[in-house]
Amino acid sequence: MINTPKTTHSEWSSRFAFILAATGSAVGLGNIWKFPYITGQNGGGAFVLVYLGCVLALGIPIMIAEIMLGRRGHLSPVNSMQSLAIEAGADSRWRYLGWLGMIAGFLILAYYSVIAGWSMAYISKAFFGSFFSSDASDIKNLFDDLMQSPIQQIFWHTVFMLITLQVVMRGVKGGLEKAVQLLMPALFFILLILVGYAMTSGAYNEGIKFLFSPDFSKINANAVLTAMGHAFFTLSLGMGSIMVYGSYLPKHISIAKTTFVIAGADTIVALLAGIAIFPLVFANQLEVGSGPGLIFQTLPLAFGKMGGGWLFGVLFFVLLFLAALTSSISLIEPTIAWLEESHQWDRKKACIWAGSGCWLLGIAVVFSFNIWSGHKLFDKNLFELLDYLTANLMLPLGGLAIAWFAGRIMKTRDSAQELEMPESDYKIWQFLIQYVSPAAVFLVFLHVLGVF
Ligand code: TRP
Fold this sequence. Notes:
By secondary structure, this protein is an all-alpha fold. It is built from 18 helices and no strands.
């Protein structure tokens, strides 16, 4: 069935506004919470190197492709894919790629909101001085208490979800463009202060060594898959977030240059977070592989001891919350845009329905940290399962399909016209997207399946 979607599409006010929004989407819990703990679990330097390789070989070319598809389609991902497929004379079922993305976004947001809720719980802990005169085991207990309390977690998850929906309901342009403009530099600044603290905390060299000296014996098929999945996750690729943001992008803005700015900022924030965290892990004999609690069990130690720690503690978790917010809205935006276009729902109704579903699934995620922690499927609790399914499978598959479409289905004439790159740069991009990106995703999957 082919709907005739109404084009209610607005546009970003400038290239800079788009950069901010897309950077806001990319920089989030993935950089500050997830990158350090998965690096810890996967042995450090070699993992970081594989991740950086994936950002270059997959992330950047696919981000260019995804923004391009969005801008040319000029609709929600489902409808953009359908109209681009028709334009290219291909099967209109390419729209299912949009569906895959909406489902992935829904599943990610369910657990993303729970973790963002933790960061809000930590704003209040920082504010009430819980980090002072605490040693590593007090700080660990603080985190364990939160994990064991479904009520606390559900409370903060609910608050975070309501705030996300409030913002999305009002449209992304109003408050957000302005907010991100202030917040991103502030986040950067506080990270630099934490890096400064880590440099003087004793185990700086050990932390840096862990992060940057590769030991490939620690890496296995699953670590490579995790690194690849994370490259997609941290850049918000493979599910339509960046596509829908691209659909609001005015013509004649250079997609490639813009992509480098976004991916560069995202990578720098992740590396700074790692540099701030690992020295503290080693100085306090904490477990590098302790998992999702890592930043919550390390950074408060620094805040408890440093001068001005109260202020920086509160500010840091406020900024983490805001970074999560500018990402969470992009997780739900493809669905909202589609409900508006194809079903003529107003934004409010769309937010209420889509948001309630995510919220309910989020409650199950909360339980997976406590009362249901024993319930496992494939040896994973619900949180781990959702994370694996989305980041390691759905996003790389979505990215592969985006690369395939942009490089092999869409007419070269159309993509060249949309990208407006110098001929030689275009050729490099085309080569990456036609051969390198699909082959890389494919090889990693084969490797995980044990084929070689
Ligand atoms: N990139 C965000 C982060 O690192 C999360 C995110 C937002 C995302 N939109 C996405 C991840 C789309 C995957 C796909 O926190």
